[in-house]
Amino acid sequence: MTDTGIGASVRRKEDYRFLTGNGRYLDDMNRPGQAHAYFLRSPHAHATFTIDGSAASKMPGVVAVYTGADIAESGLGGLICGWTITGKNGEPHKAPAHPLLALDTVRHVGDTVAVVIADSYHQAKSAAEQVVVDYKALPAVTSVVDAVDSNAPQVHADAPGNICYDWELGDKAATDAAFESAHHVTRVELVNNRVVPSAMEPRAALGEYDVGTDELTLYTTSQNPHVARLVMSAFIGLAPEHKLRIVAPDIGGGFGSKIFIYLEEVVTAWAARNLKRPGEVDGGTFGILHDRLPRARSRFSGRAGFGQGRQISGIASIDAGEYGGLSVHLFHLRPHLAVRDPDAGSIYDRRHLL
Predict the structure, then answer these.
(1) What are phi and psi of 162, to 5 degrees?
(2) pTM reported for the whole predicted model
């Protein structure tokens, strides 16, 4: 082995500036005249509400107080679902609107109802305590089993039964036949607890608007800046794509959680343009735990049929559900799989191994 070429040790080049404290993370950035944002969140899982931010707007250092009505009036769209699933009935999944700030109903603990922008973070946080929100709590459920009960409260009117989609794969007839002829059937139910990816650096965003060029720059802790630019311009309507720049500086961990587009990023950039002043938001621990970031708890139930020689004759009926963030719809996945069994004579088709 030589010091160069194939088999040689390759010295890492990116570590020095991080080990010497010279990384450049979003919170290291400060723009001239920068303001700070604080998002007010719901303590209720499900409630209607009215809101009054007039008292907060008079607090020291406050630049603006925005609610869902302000966002709606501006014409800015909401967050989108980036993937379409077609259910077994041939219809696309139910994707209710996801406003950047709730208008009159909150649907999960931590749902955002207002944003306060002030000269400092502490001024914004103090002013947020003066925002008057009158909540009228509604029934809520936290179990996927309870959510599909016929008497369960509806999270979204356009997702009847709280079902996002019912997806079916495979050959149901062949699978049913495999279970009918199975020597033994084993059933299992598994619950995957709710988890939260927790990076060392919380999510954060800094918006800056150039009045002269009418260009908007968003510095954000994103693992996916190119798609973020596309979605924010083409679907949310933040700015034309050629007028929108997304910059991802050094990122302090992500675990996939920073791939998504979050409402705080969009609102921060929108407010910077609206106020013609740079503005920053730091997600903080509460934001990490209570908005769309968490991986919701899910339940999986399934069964496996075995022949007399212990061959698997069929696997079927796997149900999964989620209830977390605004992804509060249940989805059902039922892959039907028939595996060849010499005793049962069932059908094997690789297309069903999905």
Answers:
(1) 60, 25
(2) 0.84
